[in-house]
Structures are given as structure tokens and as C-alpha cells.
Amino acid sequence: MTELTELLKQVKNLDIKTKNLVEGMESGAYRSRFRGGGIEFSEVREYAAGDDARRVDWNVSARYNDLFVKEFVEEKELNVYVVMDMSASNDFGFVKSKKELGFEITASLMFSALKNNDRVGLGLFTDSLEKFVPAKKGKKHMMEILKKLLEYTPQSTQTDIFRSLSELQKNLKRRSVVFVVSDFMSDSFVKPLQYLKLKHQIVLVNISDIRETEIPEIGHVYLEDAESGEQILVNTSDKKFQEEYSNLIKKTREEIEYEMKKLGVDFLNLSNEEPFDVTFNRYIHTRRRK
User: Fold this and answer.
1) What is the predicted pLDDT for the residue at 37?
2) Are residues 213 and 122 in the same domain?
3) What are 243-267's pLDDT values in tens digits?
4) Which of 26, 53, 232, 251 is the most buried (most CB within 10 A)?
5) Would you place residue 129 in the very low, low, confident or very high pLDDT band (cuts 50, 70, 90)?
6) Where are the bilayer-spanning segments (predicted)?
7) Is there a single domain that holds both residue 57 and residue 154?
8) Which tens digit of pLDDT belongs to each residue from 26-82?
9) How far is residue 55's CA from residue 42's CA, in Å, rounded to a whole number?
């Protein structure tokens, strides 16, 4: 009972923390960028004079030896999924961990979707898609999702975005807006994004920490890979090492941004240095002008 009470307090605290962010995320801009209006299959019916021949369902027609056409309806609401990286590299953080930042982003996006009367769902991944919760409407469903997020214990420390997105694709049955929240420290994951993008709107939210780009001068220390446990001794006061490290991080990020630009997938860079609503609104208005 104590654990449940503590968990409910965490969810409530997450609600309070993200309230200002959600209020700052412009509702009209959100809808204009991620509006519904998709076309969704409804049913098949018998062919009538004047029907578009391109809508004929040939499989059903052959089965019943008569012509049948597919009926579609306009989809007014959105399916919004937030898919979060739970691997060990996101436990790192100077003021707060990247994982904590990811929780706040996830909650902000979900509350914003709720405010716009959309359906929300959740995905959690490491080196595979460990958990998937289908999108539904309502605050009760969203609060249940946030509880699952906060109480979840990852089954792996590793990251495999390629495999995780490939598995995600199999779970998404309807057109959706998919926010992938990660530090994207993984091998190439372009191919599954290509397939996801055919049907869904994809936004990658890159979470980072200032200490990942600027190493303080504290002499010789062991740097440990949070996912593999591998350690290496480095001299953090060595100017050459500092420069090479910063250039490597910068180059890696620029390569990902370049790949995503070629693919046509939106990529947001986010850290603790700027509130999420500011970053999100700037992204919305930038996309509007394009």
C-alpha cells in the first residue's frame, strides 16, 4: 500500500511539474502541426453505379463473385504515442537524469494530447520494445500509463533503436503521431524509420545533458559506459582530449541530424538548459514556415 501511495504521489508530482509546460505548449499550433484528417478504412459494401473503380476490394469481390468496394471515413482525432528509451545511458545527468527529463517530456506530450481530445499510448524500449500500451482516450487511461512509466524496471541496460522501432511498427495498427524520446546513442536506425514514416508522423526528441559535451577538468578519472560497464582511464584536464571528445559528440549529433533531414523526419534537440514548451513551440513555428 505504501508503494502504491508513493507511486501516486510521483504521478501527481509529474502532473504539477509539467502543468506550466503544457500550458505553454500552444494548443492551436499543436493541432495545425499534428492534425487528424487521415482517412481510415470503415467497411466494404456492394458496388453501386458511379463508385470509383480504384476502391474495389478485389479479394472480397472474388470470394463472393460480385463487386464490393471499400468505404473510408475521415479520422478526426489523433493517436499520439510517446515511445521512450529506458536504457542505462539515460540514467546519466548533472542536475537531473536524462530519464527524469524524458518522464517530464512524456507527461507534457500526453497532457497536451489529452487537452486536444486525442488518444494516447506508450512504448518503452531498451534493446527491444519491452512494453507497448495501445492508444486510448481519457485522463484515467493516461494516468494509468504514467503509473506504468514511473514504476517500470527495464529488462536490459542496452540500446537497440533499430530493433525497437521495427517491433513498434508491427504494433501500430492505425495512423499515429509518434514521439521517440531518447539520447539516440545507438547504431543506425534509418531503415525502420523509413517504413514508419510511410504511414505515421515521426518526431525524434533528443535528450542530452551538458556534461556529455563539456567534461570538467578533474584530472585522471575512469569513464564508464553505462550500458556495457566498460571503463577507460582518461585525463580530463588534457586539452587535446577535451577537444577530441567534444568534437566526437558534436560530429555524432550532426550525422544523426543530417540523416534525419535526408529522411524527412523531425529531430528536436532538448536539454535541461531550456524548458520543453519553449523548444516545442519553436519547433512548431519553424515547421509552419516551411
Assistant:
1) 47
2) yes
3) 777 777 778 888 888 889 888 898 9
4) 26
5) very high
6) none
7) no
8) 554 555 556 544 555 556 788 888 888 888 888 888 888 888 888 654 556 788 999
9) 12
Q: What's the total number of domains in the chain?
A: 2
Q: Are 184 and 246 in contact (CB under 8 A)?
A: no
Give a three-class secondary structure readout of 168-180: HHHHCCCCCEEEE
- Confirm if 28 and 288 have CB atoms less than 8 A apart: no
Amino acid at 183: D
Q: Higher model confidence: residue 214 or residue 121?
A: 121
Range of the domain at 234: 2-34+77-289
pTM over the 0.85 mark: no
Q: Do residues 107 and 54 both lie within one domain?
A: no
Give CB contacts under 8 A, 24+ apart, made by 22-27: 22/108, 22/111, 22/112, 22/115, 22/277, 23/277, 24/275, 24/277, 24/278, 24/281, 25/108, 25/112, 25/277, 25/280, 25/281, 26/281, 26/284, 27/112, 27/115, 27/116
Q: Which three cell numbers stand for residue 67?
A: 463487386
- Mean pLDDT, residues 170-184 taken together: 90
> Dihedral through CA 252, CA 193, CA 121, CA 23, nearest 10?
50
The larger pLDDT score, comparing residue 98 to residue 155, is at: 155
Shared domain check, 242 and 104: yes
